[in-house]
Design goal:
about 900 residues; alpha+beta; Immunoglobulin-like; Neutral Protease, domain 2; 5-stranded antiparallel sheet; 24 helices; 32 strands; globular; metalloprotease; peptide binding
Length: about 900
């Protein structure tokens, strides 16, 4: 057993699974029976076989061996369960011999649970008449699907549930004959079974990890395209499946899936390896999507989009998530990380290449600007805390891994890949990736295998300059000092709390400086900083900027004078440069190496900005400042006035009218500015929002899809019980795919304790799906008027409502706490949270508790340190 991980004994290795699922009880207990025949390679003679199982009842287990031409079989005479480790030990009376010809046949029973893990059921309101066999629950009905990553295949059938224990899979399932079954591979046959039932059998899969295995069934329909590219002489069928009545909203995902499959086959120089591509919309889903090989599953808002009724931001989301999951078909599925500590190999790469594909097909969207504004800054936010972790993080127990499906694995991982690709050039980077995929296809690989392939393709020692980025926690800030004709650059670790200790600042990162000088059109991207500090000479002082286009994963700390000059030289900055300049100034202000006054003065230069992505970063960073000072009334009011003045001109210019030829970014800009100005107190926009809200609710004039969120939010913030109750009714009756999510994001802006209490009760009622509760907690937590009520509710109802409802899937509970409690700026609240969770079993969300502690303490320190200077600046500029 490896010392750095707790894994199954190496006595046996699986070769093939033949799994049959039958006797499904579609109602009541939702039980099922199964038989799995596992072809084994017995590596060592032993008397026990240990495998993974969770919430299953093993009825019998029988081992068949063929050694030295002697066939024998023996039944396990003892079956022991280790609930904590989710393992079963099958004990046999006599030792079995080592052989490559053995099979283990297990009969078992399980449950189609309602926790969005393993083999589970999804409850939904049908959009069209359904077939008779679909199980009903009042007005709701059910579909069934699986979610196995990271360690939940064991909830569905006994198996060797580790990523490097790959095997092939044969599968059949008995279902009602009027429903449709799907799995990783195409259907091989359908045969009648008992009355009203059929057995659907699927083709054998390639060798793959258990977490990528999948199946689903229900009252499904599909739309289909075929790839333009040929695979073994044929176009591949690409389908998007939905429950009945929703397939017309799958067209956008289908178009993207077909062309992206071809795009990745071409750039990776490895053909898509399966005979079909299926995407499935699942009504209850804990994640955004799951990359099961050949049967990719999605929450509905990540795969369905209606041009007439959906907010345009979901168009970007669907395009990107489809691309991300398809990237995994190669990077993760064809070549799989060896163990969960290298999860970033899957997620970091899929995130970067997902945006690469989205940009390739939608260049007008400026997706790299979106990446810098959102993904990069989100990664910075977590990695600037002491409670962060390295990209490659030790994982001893696979049951711990869900918490590292986080912004470090996805967003820092993808940011590091973006930095490396920019340095090596995209062409050489993709060539290295292609070589990596070819060398390790159908197997497992490690980070160093990728570095070796990239080194060979580029002629550079990639491991030498990437190890610190992968193996060390944190990232640097580059402090810039100026002398005539030259600048000095010094790196040190960046912590948002601003109190880096010497022992925390020992890492030396390889940093590509990306220096822009002169006109701003030239960028020298290959100058690396390899030591603690360096002097750059012959600098044109009229204009220079480090980290061209924000491809490097670091912040830059300029002198206050240079920061102002850069703000005034906006015409010479790229979109990504503007975003990173604003974000860096805000973060440095919080850390104390810059000032909030400097940040406010910088963003004043942008009041005539017309780009959505720049405004999004300005208002997000400014919103963070307002959050920190929200409980200091005079500063809070001054910042509100500052925000109102900053956005009013742009909001009035963009106006209310959504025109047919408006580009996507224009629609998003309008929504953002209306929401921001209305919530900051712009009287005209408040009146316009209230008028439009009433017309929409009364059925007189439905809102444009892109105006729902800003109008709902302004109406709720400036309204009362009538508006809140109207929106709750909207939530219950909307048929728009994104409608419920938009309502939950808006209802949390209520201003009274009574309405906050009602909304919390609503969130924990059957009206709100478990997967969506976090949308409400995020909205309440971001609202200064309600965040304390949210925390008091959690404390008062932890044992009776919160933990029981959300802990069936720890991903859901972890996310609920993370997004609901991270906006406090009070040391007393941080201590209260810490004390409340002391002594409780925090497994599944302990990392988040550490992140919350660091975040809240950092906010409190920032508030205490900067409140005098912020007050002084606001007063001097007429906002107080």
């Amino acid at each position: 057993m490896a010392q750095d991980r707790d894994i199954l004994p190496d006595t046996v290795k699986p070769v093939n699974y033949e799994l049959s699922i039958y006797d499904l009880e579609l109602g009541g207990a939702f039980s099922y029976a199964g038989t799995v025949k596992i072809a084994l390679d017995i590596v060592k003679s032993a008397k026990e076989i240990v495998l993974n199982t969770h919430q299953l009842e093993i009825q019998t287990a029988e081992l068949f061996t063929d050694s030295a031409k002697t066939e024998s079989s023996t039944k396990a005479d003892k079956i022991d369960y280790d609930e904590k480790q989710q393992r079963a030990t099958l004990s046999f009376a006599d030792a079995f011999p080592a052989t490559t010809k053995a099979s283990l046949i297990i009969k078992f029973k399980g449950t189609m649970n309602n926790t969005m893990a393993g083999f589970y059921r999804s409850r939904y309101l049908p959009a069209a008449p359904h077939v008779p066999s679909v199980p009903k629950d009042g007005d709701h009905v059910y579909m069934f699907s699986t979610q196995f990553e990271s360690s939940d295949a064991r909830r569905a059938f006994p198996c060797f549930d580790e990523p490097n224990l790959k095997a092939t899979f044969d599968f059949d399932i008995e279902i009602p004959d009027d429903q449709v079954a799907l799995s990783n591979m195409p259907v091989k046959s359908e045969e009648p079974s008992k009355s009203g039932l059929k057995v659907v059998t699927f083709e054998k899969t390639p060798i793959m990890s258990t977490y990528l295995y999948a199946w689903a069934f229900g009252d499904l329909e599909f739309i289909e395209e075929h790839t333009a590219r040929l695979y073994n002489g044929k176009s591949l069928p690409v389908r998007v499946y939905t429950t009945k009545g929703l397939k017309d909203q799958a067209q956008w995902a289908l178009v993207n899936a077909s062309k992206i499959t071809d795009y990745f086959s071409e750039i990776f120089r490895v053909d898509y390896p399966l005979p079909k591509v299926d995407l499935l919309a699942v009504h209850e889903f804990s994640h955004g999507a799951m990359e099961n090989w050949g049967l990719i599953t999605y929450r509905t808002t990540a795969v369905l989009f209606d041009e007439k009724s959906s907010d345009q931001k979901y168009k970007v989301r669907v395009a990107y998530v489809v691309a991300h999951e398809l990237a995994h078909q190669w990077f993760g599925n064809l070549v799989t990380m060896d163990w969960w500590n290298e999860l970033w190999l899957n997620e970091g790469f899929a995130t970067w290449v997902g945006w690469l594909a989205t940009d390739h097909f939608n260049p007008s969207w400026n997706v790299w600007g979106q990446f810098v504004s959102e993904s990069l800054q989100t990664a910075f936010a977590l990695d600037s805390l002491r409670s962060s972790h390295p990209i490659e993080v030790p994982v001893r127990d696979a049951l711990e891994v869900d918490q590292i499906f986080d912004h470090i694995s996805y967003l820092k991982g993808s940011s590091i890949i973006r930095m490396l690709s920019a340095h090596l050039t995209q062409e050489k980077f993709i060539l290295g990736v292609s070589n990596y995929l070819k060398a390790h296809q159908f197997g497992n690989a490690k980070t160093n295998d990728l570095w070796a392939a990239l080194s060979e393709a580029s002629g550079q020692d990639v491991k030498a300059f990437m190890d610190a980025w992968i193996l060390k926690i944190g990232f640097p800030v580059l402090s810039v000092s100026e002398e005539p004709g030259q600048i000095g650059v010094k790196q040190s670790r960046f912590l948002l709390s601003g109190d880096v200790k010497p022992e925390e600042d020992e890492s030396i990162w390889w940093v590509p400086l990306g220096l822009k000088t002169g006109s701003g059109s030239a960028a020298t991207t290959n100058i690396p900083l390899t030591g603690r500090e360096q002097t750059l000479r012959d600098i044109d002082e009229t204009f220079y900027k480090l980290n061209a286009d924000a491809t490097g994963f670091y912040r830059t700390n300029y002198t206050p004078e240079r920061l102002m000059k850069l703000g005034q030289a906006r015409a010479q900055l790229s979109l990504e440069d503007k975003i990173s300049l604003i974000a860096d100034a805000a973060a440095l202000a919080q850390a104390g190496t810059g000032t909030t006054a400097g940040f406010l003065a910088l963003v004043e230069n942008f009041k005539d900005e017309d780009n959505y992505l720049v405004w999004s970063r300005i208002l997000t960073s400014l919103g963070n400042v307002r959050t920190v000072f929200a409980d200091i009334p005079d500063i809070s009011e001054g910042l509100r006035k500052f925000t109102l003045k900053l956005v009013s001109q742009a909001a009035e210019k963009v106006g209310w009218d959504c025109l047919p030829n408006d580009e996507l970014l224009t629609l998003q800009l309008r929504a953002l500015l209306i929401s921001s100005a209305g919530r900051a107190g712009h009287e005209g926009i408040i009146a316009g929002a209230q008028q439009r809200f009433k017309a929409h609710i009364d059925g007189i004039q439905p809102l444009h899809p892109n105006l729902r969120l800003p109008v709902f939010r302004v109406a709720i913030k400036n309204g009362g019980a009538t508006e809140y109750q109207s929106l709750q009714h909207e939530y219950k009756t909307t048929t728009s795919i994104d409608g419920k999510e938009i309502c939950l994001q808006s209802m949390g802006l209520v201003q009274s304790p009574a309405l906050a209490a009602d909304f919390l009760a609503f969130l924990f009622s059957d009206a709100v799906a478990v997967q969506d509760v976090h949308s409400g907690s995020a909205s309440l937590g971001a609202n200064p008027a309600t965040r304390t009520a949210l925390w008091e509710f959690i404390k008062a109802n932890w044992e009776t409502k919160v933990y029981p409802r959300l802990s069936g899937n720890m991903v859901v509970l972890d996310r609920f706490l993370k997004v609901g409690l991270d906006d406090f700026a009070s040391a007393a609240v941080e201590e209260d949270i810490r004390r409340f969770f002391e002594g409780k079993d925090n497994k599944g969300y302990d990392r988040t508790l550490s992140v919350l502690s660091d975040t809240i303490k950092g906010n409190a320190t920032y508030q205490e340190r900067d409140q005098a200077v912020v007050k002084e600046w606001l007063s001097a500029h007429g906002y107080m």
